[in-house]
């Protein structure tokens, strides 16, 4: 079931992707922010309560619906439920159009347009950014977006499905990621105070993403330059053990032999929809490798799609093992 559900969800998402302002994402954002306003009284236990309700309740509902459909109706409708959940939580089209626009602008030599696209995508200040740095940031943001929207979801869904939890793993991963982004009680600069929910959500996301981030890094290593990717991963883990994003970026850099990391971009404005500037842990720290060039964007696309093939093969083998078992 997991293989066919994932395949159908990916095909549906390629044919008709959800828009950024669709009712599902807007509802999740409103849900998390409502919990932040009403359950976060500033104490640690309130933060954990808000996080548990925000993340574990939708996860339990997804799992309960799976079990209910299997028990009362059978696997066809249960698989349809898997496809629906994966369609909402999984997909390249949630970010790939940004990558494509920037890449086309760079290939046509329009660096100003590429800077504008990058600034609009991440809500950062990209003024006067050199061409090499545009490429670097695009690669970093893109591979981390691929992890959060695709590979992390696949990892948690596969684990949950193997344990008989249905699509609960996919919901758990995405809700934990959403909570880490939207737990902020207010976006007004005058009242920007970090609440317990925001602190707890950030800590919980680091824990939740520990294994999926390393599975993503491993998949990049398998389909790329394995030895260099593992060396970069090992160095990053030894020096910054809690930096999950850094592990992915270090593995990516080694897999295609490019230099990633460095000074992060500054946020253009305070906006909860804007991803925080991303870089290898430690401002200015970089990995070994060649300077990023526009041609490396094609290498990143190949790396990501080869990793998708590896994950689909893995899901096919798991599905076959369940059928034979």
TrEMBL record:
Domain of life: Bacteria
Pfam family, one: CobD_Cbib
UniProt KW Nuclease keyword: no
Membrane topology: Multi-pass membrane protein
Key words of the record: Cell membrane, Cobalamin biosynthesis, Membrane, Transmembrane, Transmembrane helix
Compartment(s) where it occurs, according to its Swiss-Prot or TrEMBL record: Cell membrane
Transmembrane segments: 67-92, 303-324
InterPro entries: Beta-lactamase_Reg, Cobalamin_biosynth_CobD/CbiB
Main location: membrane
Pathway the protein acts in: Cofactor biosynthesis; adenosylcobalamin biosynthesis
Family: Belongs to the CobD/CbiB family.
Functional summary from the UniProt entry: Converts cobyric acid to cobinamide by the addition of aminopropanol on the F carboxylic group.
Protein name according to UniProt: Cobalamin biosynthesis protein CobD
Species: Comamonas squillarum
């Amino acid at each position: 079931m997991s293989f066919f559900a994932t395949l159908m969800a990916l095909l549906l998402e390629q044919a008709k992707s959800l828009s950024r302002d669709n009712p599902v994402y807007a509802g999740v954002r409103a849900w998390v922010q409502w919990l932040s306003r009403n359950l976060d009284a500033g104490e640690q236990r309130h933060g954990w309560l808000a996080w548990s309700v925000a993340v574990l309740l939708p996860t339990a509902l997804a799992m309960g619906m799976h079990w209910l459909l299997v028990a009362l109706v059978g696997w066809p409708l249960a698989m349809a439920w898997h496809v629906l959940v994966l369609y909402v939580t999984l997909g390249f089209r949630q970010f790939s159009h940004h990558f494509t626009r920037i890449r086309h602008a760079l290939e046509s030599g329009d660096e100003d347009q590429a800077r504008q696209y990058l600034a609009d995508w991440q809500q950062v200040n990209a003024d006067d950014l050199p061409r090499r740095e545009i490429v670097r940031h695009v690669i970093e943001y893109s591979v981390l977006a691929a992890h959060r929207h695709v590979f992390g979801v696949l990892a948690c869904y596969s684990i949950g499905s193997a344990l008989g939890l249905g699509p609960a793993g996919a919901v758990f991963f995405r809700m934990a990621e959403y909570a880490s982004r939207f737990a902020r009680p207010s976006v007004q600069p005058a009242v920007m105070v970090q609440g317990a929910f925001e602190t707890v959500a950030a800590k919980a996301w680091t824990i939740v993403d520990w294994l999926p981030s390393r599975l993503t890094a491993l998949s990049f290593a398998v389909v790329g330059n394995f030895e260099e990717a593992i060396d970069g991963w090992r160095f990053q883990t030894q020096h910054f053990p809690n930096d999950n994003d850094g592990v992915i970026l270090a593995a990516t850099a080694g897999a295609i032999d490019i230099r990633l990391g460095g000074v992060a971009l500054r946020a253009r404005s305070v906006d909860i929809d804007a991803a925080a500037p991303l870089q290898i842990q430690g401002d200015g720290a970089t990995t070994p490798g060649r300077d990023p060039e526009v041609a490396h964007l094609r290498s990143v696309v190949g790396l990501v799609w080869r990793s998708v093939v590896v994950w689909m093969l893995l899901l096919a083998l798991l599905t076959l093992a369940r059928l034979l078992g």
